[in-house]
Write a structure and sequence with these properties.
Structural class: alpha+beta
Number of strands: 23
Strand order of the largest sheet: 3-2-4-1-10-9-11
Largest sheet: 7 strands, antiparallel
Radius of gyration: 23 Å
Helix content: 25-40%
Distance between the termini: 39 Å
Number of helices: 18
Oligomer: single chain
Length: 529
């Protein structure tokens, strides 16, 4: 098992899982450059998107080499391993699992055969028709080999298998046939021995950008990764676009009509604050969310403090709009992270203090406004409020720069189950009582969307509204462990993962709204889930 590297992760409570990020992908085509090192630093910039495993594949024009393992980017790679990855093309990946367990077999990039060589592929997102695609693999290639045969249980392995193709089709031609069959969210960066490819789903749920090096090209999940490797931003990879880069230059083709539905939670939490998405700086969007939050939920107080680090931009905006001073009331231990050591009972009881500690002289006797980006289970906020009261805070008012999260995501974010989401089935005042705050205010959906400066119809807000812009299949064909579940003894399809069983049927009002938009809710309309 990988050891801790002293780097901080998102979790504030031991064992308390927050929203888990989508994966990060990186690709580079650059003759004369150290592409493995460029990929390493690109992945380092994308580490926040996945902390379970990391990998890099390179090609020198005739063969592909790959190195991947469990752990953080800085744990997996060192000078020795990077020096073995030679070539002028590279694909890199840092993973958080949304389909398939967290295991070495499921680390990416995946490898597969093609009609004329090998393909290495990294995937950010989550497919919704994996079961259907697996049947297509079995139909086309009855003697399943490659990563699926070696125990890989991800939707990425299914895509890789479908790219096998035949002698009459190049990898590019096969991709143009396969990509329109994929449903859900996917940003793909893949390569064969001579060519780098990048593709984005027609809805563009997850971000993917194109950058220019002096001697080549880069594709990455976020613009921050371009900055770190010295690439200039060219543009976003368009929804429904396949980009091909080889010795003849860059060419682009459409495999589907664009129907943009970018993930609004990228602005709220997932993306780095120094990233730009659809022309809008993420930091600026979060500050604006804080300003709008102050206008929607004012309260008399002495100090605005953030929950480090995710709540900081919104807290700055709240302080600016309210005129209440901004302060650092909490100190975050930047050297406590993925230690892989279970906390003792004493430390577990102290909970959040493992990573956060109050500045008692700053907050004692003060009426505090504590700003965070979201509430998932509520355990972190509950422990935080308790800790601030122990430190002498006179009042604790919690402000959240997004609406209540009440629905699961099937497009690449692993939230807690619907049954565990504290806002499910509770009124806001009941959530307030649950976390022990003096008051609680969530940013409205309108306020959140307006802060992104994106048209409402170009955003996915499913985790807040339950309106899924990409249709979902039957519940038994969804779930993180879809390819690891055994069929029932009677030969029927495997049942849904436990986290899906608690998803409730939509109300009549939501059904009407969905019908007007031509969209579908989770599960069978009208059936009690």
């Amino acid at each position: 098992m990988a050891g801790g590297d002293g780097q901080l992760n998102h979790d504030l409570l031991p064992g308390e899982k927050g929203p888990q990020d989508a994966c990060g992908v990186f690709g580079v085509w650059a003759p004369g450059e150290e592409v493995a090192k460029l990929s390493y630093f690109g992945l380092y910039a994308l580490q926040h998107r996945g902390q379970e495993s990391a990998g890099i594949a390179t090609s020198d024009g005739s063969k592909i080499l790959i190195y991947k393992d469990m752990g953080l980017v800085s744990q997996v790679f060192n000078e020795a391993s990077l020096s073995t990855l030679l070539g002028h093309i590279a694909v890199g990946h840092t993973r958080y699992s949304t389909t398939g367990s967290s295991s070495w077999q499921n680390a990416q990039p995946t490898l597969g055969r093609t009609s004329s060589g090998t393909v290495a592929l990294g995937h950010n997102g989550n497919l919704t028709n994996t079961a259907e695609l697996l049947e297509l693999v079995r139909e086309r290639y009855p003697k399943v080999d490659g990563e699926l045969a070696r125990g890989n249980t991800t939707d990425t392995a299914v895509i890789t298998a479908l790219l096998t193709g035949d002698l009459d089709h190049t990898l590019e031609a096969t991709a143009l046939e396969v990509l329109p069959r994929l449903r859900g969210a996917y940003c793909l960066v893949f390569m064969d021995e001579t060519t780098l490819y990048a593709a984005r789903d027609p809805q563009g749920v997850r971000p993917l950008v194109l950058g220019r090096l002096e001697r080549g090209w880069v594709v990455a999940s976020e613009t921050a990764a371009l900055d770190i490797v010295g690439a200039s931003f060219v543009r976003e990879v368009e929804p429904g676009e396949l980009i091909t880069i080889d010795e003849n230059g860059l060419r682009t083709q459409r495999f589907a009509k664009a129907d943009p539905k970018g993930c609004v939670f990228e602005y709220v939490y997932l993306a780095r604050p120094d990233t730009t998405i659809a022309g809008r700086g993420v930091h600026e969007a979060r500050v604006e969310m804080g300003r709008r939050l102050a206008a929607e939920h004012p309260v008399e107080a002495d100090l605005v403090i953030p929950t480090p680090e995710s709540g900081t931009p919104a807290a700055i905006g709240y302080a600016q709009a309210s005129g209440i001073p901004f302060g650092q009331g909490l100190v975050k231990n930047s050297y406590v992270g993925r230690t892989f050591i279970a906390p003792s009972q004493t430390i577990r009881q102290r909970g959040i203090r493992l990573k956060l500690n109050p500045l008692k002289n700053v907050i004692k006797g003060k009426r505090l406004i504590v700003v965070d980006d979201s509430i998932v289970r509520g355990n972190t906020q509950r422990a935080l409020v308790s800790m601030l009261r122990e430190a002498g805070a006179a009042e604790v008012h919690v402000r959240i720069s997004s609406p209540p999260i009440t629905w699961p995501c099937f497009y690449g974010i692993d939230f807690a189950s619907r049954a565990e989401l504290v806002a499910t089935g509770l009124e806001i005042d009941e959530v307030r009582q649950s976390i022990g705050a003096d008051s609680l205010g969530y940013l409205s959906e309108d306020g959140m969307i307006e802060a992104t400066e994106q048209p409402r119809e170009r955003l996915c807000t499913a985790c807040f509204t339950g309106i899924y812009p990409i249709p979902l299949p039957e519940s038994q064909h969804l779930g993180k462990n879809l390819l690891e579940r055994e069929p029932a003894s009677n030969g029927c399809d495997p049942g849904p993962d436990s986290e899906l069983e608690a998803v409730l049927a939509p109300t009549i009002q939501r059904d009407k709204a969905l019908a007007a938009l031509g969209q579908v809710p989770f599960g069978d309309p009208g059936r009690q889930e």
